[in-house]
Amino acid sequence: MAAFGHCIGRQHEIEQSVTGTPGTQRRGIKLALITGFSVVLLLLAVVVWVGLSNMEAIQSQLNRIVENHNVKKDLVALMRNAARERTLNMFRMITLSDPFARDDEFMLYNHNGALFAEARAKLKQMPLDARENEILDLQGAETGQTTGLLEEVVALALRDERAAASKLLYEKTIPRQDRVFVYLTQLQDYQTEATRIAEQNARTRLSQARMVMLASGGAALLLGMFIALFVVRYTTQAEARLFREKKKAVVTLHSIGEGVITTDAHARINYLNSVASDLTGWSTNDAQGRELLEIFKVRDDQGQALSVNPVSVALAEDRILNAGKDLTLKNQAGEEFAVEYTVAPIRDHNGGVLGAVLVFRNVTEIRQMANQMAYQATHDTLTGLINRFEFESRLELALQSAREHGKFHTLFYMDLDQFKVVNDTCGHTAGDALLQQLTAQLQANTRGSDTLARLGGDEFALLLANCRLDSALHTAETLCDAVDSFRFVWEGKSFGVSASIGVVEIRPDSGTLTDLLSAADNACYVAKDLGRNRIHVFQPDDVALAKRQGEMQWLPRIRSALEQGQFRLFYQRIVPLSSTQEEQHCELLLRMVDADKKLVPPGAFMPAAERYGLTHNIDRWVINAAFDHLSAHRSYVANPNQLWTINLSGQTICDDHFLDFVMEQFRTKNVPPASICFEITETTAIRNLNRAAELMSTLKSMGCRFALDDFGSGLSSFNYLKHLSVDFLKIDGSFVKDMLDDAMDCAMVESINQIGQLLGLRTIAEWVEHEQVLAKLQELRVDFAQGYCIHTPEPLAAWSSQIRRPA
Question: Are 651 and 616 in contact (CB under 8 A)?
C-alpha cells in the first residue's frame, strides 16, 4: 500500500512539475535552487551541531547493547539452571521411595519447567540476530524432542516404576538434555562475542562520527558553494527524468494485478488503471471528476450499500482505511465480484495531501475456496449433514444452556442395523447411496430446529433442542418406523434396514459432553442387544447398561493381557468311547491371569472381547502360543493319532488376513496340519456360512480338520450340515449334562449322534460330568467324550511330562 501511495504521489508531483510554460518553469526552479543552497550554506553550521548531538545517540545505543547483553545473559543462565534443576528433580523422583516426596519433586519439576519456558519466551521477545534465532530454534527443537522423554520418565517415576524410569533417564533423556545444554552454551558464547563486536563497532562509530562531523562542518561550507554552481546545469536533465518517471509510473499502475483508483484532495476520481476499469466497467475518461461511489458500488454481506465514501473518510481522518469483510462489487454490466480494498491518502514530498488512492482486488475465488473449506470442516461430504466435530460443538452449547438456564433437550444416538449386509453384498458404492437416501428419510421426519449429524460409518446423531423426553420419544418412534419402512434397491435387489436408537435427556445435571455421548452410545448398544430396530432410553440405574459398562471395564484388561502376555493355555483330553478308536484328542483352552495372579475363565472376558472386536486378536495369540509349544515338542506332535483342537471366533472367520496368518504359522513353526483341528461353534458357522465354508475348504486341503461345536443349539442345525465340510460334531453340552433325567435331552443326543454318523462324521459329547452319563453315551455309540468326569483342564506346560511318547 505504501508503494502504491508513493507511486501515485510521485505521479502528481511530476504532473505539477511539467505543467505550464517550459522556460518560466525552468527559471523558477533555478531561482529556487540557488536560494535554497544559499540557505544551506548558512545552515551547515547547525548541521555540524546536530551531528555532534547524534553522537550522544550513538553513546545511548552503546549503553543499550550492554544492557541487552546482560539481560540475555541472565535469561540464558536462568534457562540452564532451570533445565539442570529439572533433571535433578527427575533424578530425585526416581530415587525417592516416599510418594509424597516424589510429588513434591514433581511440583518442583513443573515449576522449573515453567521457569525455563518463561525465560525462553522472554529471550525470544528480545532483539535477536539470525544466528541467535538459529541456535535458539535448534535448542527449541531439541527441547521439543526431549520433552516426550522427560514426560515418560516422570510418568514412570510417579507410577513407582523407578528402574524403567532410571534406565530411560540415563540411556535416552540425559544424552538429549546434554545437547540442549550444548546449544545454551553456544548461545552464551555467541552472545558474548556478538556483544563485544557490537560494542567495539559502536565505539568506533562514535569516534569516527566526532571526526567526520568536525571535518564536515568546514568542508560543507566549501562544497555548498560548488554544488550551487552545478545545480542549474542539471535542472533541465531533471525535468526530462521526471517526465520519464511519470510514464514509468503509469505503465506500472496498468501492469499490476490489482485495481487502482486515485482521487484528488476533494475525493473526485482522476485515474483508474486497467484492472479497475475491467472490474468496474468504467474508463478513466468516463469516471474522471465523479464521486467514488458512483462507479465503485460495493455492498456488505447484508446487501447494504456503503453509506459513507471511504476516500472521504481516509482524507478527513488522514489515515489508511481497510475494508470490512465479505464485500461485493457490482459493475456496470451487473456482474458481481467479491472484493477487498484499502484506501490511503497520497502525500507529496512535503507531507501535503494531494488526494487518495484506493487499491482493491477480486477475491471471489479465494472467498469461495474459504467458504468451501469452512463447510468441509463442519460437514460430512457424503450426506451433507454436519460432522461429529460440529455436532459436538452444538451439543456443548446445548449442555451449557441446560446448566445455566435450566433448558431441557434430548439427544438421539442412532445406528443402522443391517448396513453391513448392504456394504458386504453390493460394495461401498451401494452403501454410500443407502446412507444418502436414508439421510433424506431422516431429514424428512425431523424439525427445522433439530440438528441431525453423521458421526461416521452408519452412525447418526440427532439433537432436539428445547424438547423434553416425552415429546422426543414420539420423534424417535417416527424415525424408527421411517427407517424400517424404507426399502433400498440396488441392481434389482431390495434390502430392508432398521435403526437402533439410544435416547438421553439433556438436563442441568447431565454432566460433561463425554458423559452424555457415552450414555447415548451405551443406550444405543443396549437397543441393539435387545433385538435391534428399537429405542432404549438411558437411565442411570439401568441393568442392561450396567452390564455393558461392565464389559467395557474388561476392554483395557484384555488389551493389557495381549500386550503383557497375561493369557495362559490349558488343555483338556477328549477320549474315545470305543476300543476301536485310537485317536487321542486335546482341546486347548484359554485362561487369563488377573492382577492377583488368579486364573479368569473365558466366560468372564470373551463376551467383552467379542463385543469390542478383540476375539480375532485373542485367536491369533492362541494359535501363535500353541504352535510355539507344539513346535518345541515336535516328537510328540508327530504322532498321527494325536489331534489338537483350537477354537476360532466369528471375527476370525471374517478376517481377510487370517488364512495367510495360519499358513505362515504352519510354515515357520513346522507344525503338521494333520495334527490340528479347528473348532467353530454352530451359530458362528451359520452366521458366516460362506466365509466358514471357504476357510474350511482351504485348510482341509492342507490336512487340517474341523469340529462343529455346540451342535443342536441352532434352529436349523441339520439343514446347514450339508454346506459345512466338518469332521466332528460336538453335541451341545446342555443336552448331555441332563440326558439321564430329561428324555427330550437324551433323544436330542441320540438324534444328533445318528445324523452325524449317517453323514460320516464322528461325534463328541461335551460336559460329561458323571460316570453314568459316560456309560449312556457308550450305549448310544457316541464316538468321543469330553468333560470333568474324564479330565480336568491342566496347564499346557504340564502336557509334555504326562503324555506317552510314541514307540
Answer: yes
**Rounded Cα–Cα distance for residues 440 and 454 (Å):** 12
Q: Specify the DSSP class assigned to residue 306.
A: P
Q: DSSP letters of 765-800?
A: E----SHHHHHHHHHTT-SEE-STTT---EEGGGHH
Place of cell 472367520: 653
Per residue in 292-308, pLDDT (tens digit) is 888 888 887 777 777 77
> Which of 608, 501, 502 has its CA nearest to residue 549?
608
724 phi/psi in degrees, rounded to 5: -115, 125
Residues 296, 280: contact at Cβ < 8 Å?
A: yes
Q: How far is CA 251 from the centre of its chain?
A: 50
d(CA 47, CA 751): 122
**The three grid cell numbers given for residue 331, joined into one nine-digit string:** 459493475
Question: Of 473, 449, 479, 465, which Cα lies nearest the Cα of 408?
Answer: 465
CA atoms within 13 A on the CB side of 651: 14
- Please name the amino acid found at residue 83: A
Task: Report the C-alpha dihedral over residues 757, 759, 760, 762, rounded to 10 degrees.
Answer: -50
Spatial separation of the C-alpha atoms in residues 443 and 466, rounded to whole Å: 18
Cell numbers that stand for 138 in this block:
535448534
DSSP state of 268: B
Which position has the grid cell 503383557? 564
CA–CA separation, 263 vs 603, rounded Å? 86
What is the residue-wise DSSP string for 346-363?
Answer: EE-TTS-EEEEEEEEEE-
**Residue that has been written with the C-alpha cell 460443538 in this structure:** 393
Q: What is the largest CA-CA distance in the chain?
A: 138
The pLDDT tens digits of the residues spanning 176-233 come to 777 777 877 877 787 787 778 877 877 777 777 667 666 766 666 676 666 666 665 6
Question: How many angstroms separate the CA atoms of 376 and 365, rounded?
Answer: 16
Please report the sign of the dihedral spanned by the C-alpha atoms of residue 193, residue 195, residue 196, residue 202. Answer: positive
Q: Is the pTM of this model over 0.70?
A: no
The alpha carbon of residue 734 and the mean position of all alpha carbons in its chain are separated, in whole angstroms, by 49
pLDDT band per the 50, 70, 90 thresholds, residue 36: low
Q: Please, what's the b/e burial string for 646-668 (b: 16 or more CB within 10 A of its CB; e: otherwise)?
A: bbbbbbbbbbeebeeebeebbee
φ/ψ of 589, rounded to 5, equals: -120, 150
Alpha helices in 256-342 (DSSP H): 274-280, 284-287, 292-295, 310-317
Q: Is 169 exposed, middle or buried (0-12, 13-18, 19+ CB in 10 A)?
A: buried
Cell of residue 391, nine digits: 455436532
| Contacts of 707 by beta carbon, 8 Å cutoff, 6+ apart | 645, 677, 678, 679, 680, 726, 727, 728, 729, 730, 764
Domains and CATH numbers, the chain: 18-253 (1.20.120.1730), 256-370 (3.30.450.20), 379-540 (3.30.70.270), 553-800 (3.20.20.450)
Q: What is the mean pLDDT of the chain?
A: 80
Pick the closest to residue 187 from 65, 80, 68, 66 (CA basis).
80
Distance CA 524, CA 537 (A): 9
Cα(798)–Cα(573) distance, rounded to whole angstroms? 13
| Number of other CB atoms surrounding residue 297 within 10 Å | 17
How many Å apart are CA 507 and CA 472, to the nearest integer? 14
Q: Are 501 and 480 in contact (CB under 8 A)?
A: yes
Q: At what angle do helices 543-564 and 615-632 cross, to 10 degrees?
A: 30
Look up residue 161 and give its amino acid. Answer: E
Q: Which residues, 6 or more positions from 591, have their beta carbon under 8 angstroms from its beta carbon?
A: 567, 568, 569, 570, 599, 600, 601, 602
Whole-angstrom distance, CA of residue 757 vs CA of residue 771: 23
The model's pLDDT over 105-126, given as tens digits with 9 standing for 90+, comes to 888 888 888 888 888 888 888 8
Helix (H, G, I), strand (E, B), or coil: what is residue 403? helix
| Residue 229, amino acid | L
Neighbour-count burial of 97, counting CB atoms closer than 10 A to its CB (0-12 exposed, 13-18 middle, 19+ buried): exposed
Q: Which of 83, 447, 448, 18 is nearest to 249 (CA)?
A: 18
